[in-house]
Amino acid sequence: MRIRVASHQYWLRPVSSFSEFSEQVSAVVRTAADYRCALLVLPEYYSLQLLTTTQRSLSIRERVREVAGRADQVKELFSSLGRETGMYVVGGSMPVVEGEKLYNEALLATPSGSIFTQKKIHMTRFESEGWGMVGGDSLAIFETAFGKLAITTCYDVEFPELVRPAALAGAEIFAVPSCTDDQAGYYRVRFCGQARAIENQVYVIQSSTVGGLPDVVDCAINYGQAAIMAPCDVPFAPMGIIREGTPNIETTIMGDLDMDLLSQTRNDGTVRTFRDAQQSPTVRIYTVTAVR
After folding, report:
1. What CA–CA distances, in Å, run from 159 to 164, 174, 203?
2. Rounded distance, CA 110 to CA 241, Å?
3. 75 counts as catalytic
4. Which residue spans within the chain are E strands per DSSP?
5. Pair 154, 120: CB distance under 8 Å
6. Which of 120, 179, 219, 244 is catalytic?
7. How many DSSP H helices and E strands does the chain contain?
8. Domain residue spans in the chain?
9. Torsion-angle region of 143 (φ positive above 0: left; ψ -120 to 50: alpha; else: beta)
10. What is the DSSP string of 222-283?
11. Are 60 and 25 a contacting pair, CB within 8 Å?
């Protein structure tokens, strides 16, 4: 089975209303549908455009919680877009409040309009210390019409011990919505995404924010580049990159994923990292005193 997927580099810009935000998001989703994509991935925290509709006199923690109050509207928007386009859409992520706890939650809209969610598990320092966010405690594997999908939001993909069990549970595509302010942050996510693709012989789709919100200190700048990645092996591009965007502009990239080829590579590739990791011997590690 071959499917076309898309990843969007989303330009964070001030908006005056939820309606304006909705129009921008809808245009991105409909464009991917025009190109017959089965899956679109939007970036982490693209929804923070809505911070510009909150009061500047409030603290950043208060403003983030105000945006979290829009979560149901965002879910309704993506439910409608899923039904309209017949696509699966990873709707980036946004802050949500449950009880008194603040989470970073990604959503998945399906062609039927159903909405599923995935909380980010590992919090970065600005999320936990600056915004008071907490992490989730479970990772879902979503069964789709084209295979099993997992969402590892930004920092989450930097932890192989999280991704590996998901791959063993059948996930073959990992969506990585990301939001990074500088190049170092971006490349941590990008390089770890590529490592996970190689280790587990899976596809990884990273989506990034670009642009910035001048009146919001924590979102003033973004460095981003979307990428669709595969294992590094003969049937794929040598560097394992199916498509990548030009950094720091707004654009949508698209590429085709061959699910049968992925399975063949796992079974008969130049290397079989996914299989061989399951058969690794017990390794004895010891320390040698080598001080003269």
Report:
1. 9, 13, 16
2. 26
3. no
4. 2-12, 39-41, 88-98, 101-109, 115-119, 142-144, 147-151, 173-178, 203-211, 227-229, 241-244, 251-258
5. yes
6. 120
7. 8, 12
8. 2-278
9. beta
10. -----EEE--SSTTS-TTSEEEEPPTTS-EEEEEEEEHHHHHHHHHHSS--HHHHHHTPPPP
11. no
pTM confidence score: 0.96
257 strand-pairing partners: 3
Residue entry with tokens 């699966």:
88
Residues in a beta bridge with 232: none
Class at the top of the CATH hierarchy for domain 2-278: alpha beta
Backbone angles phi, psi at 134, to 5 degrees: -125, 160
pLDDT digits (tens, 9 = 90+) for 237-263: 999 999 999 999 999 999 999 999 999
In whole angstroms, give the CA distance from residue 216 to residue 50. 11
Which of 37, 44, 105, 244 is the catalytic position? 44
118 vs 273: CA distance, rounded Å:
27
- Helix axis angle, 183-200 relative to 160-168, nearest 10°? 30
Whether residue 154 lies in the annotated active site: yes
**Residue 120 annotated in active site:** yes
What phi and psi values does residue 290 have, to the nearest 5 degrees?
Answer: -120, 20
pLDDT in tens, 55-74: 888 888 999 999 999 999 99
List the one residue out of 223, 211, 210, 213 whose CA is nearest residue 52: 213
Write down the catalytic residue from 105, 119, 154, 158: 154
Question: Each residue of 185-228: pLDDT tens digit?
Answer: 999 999 999 999 999 999 999 999 999 888 777 788 999 999 99
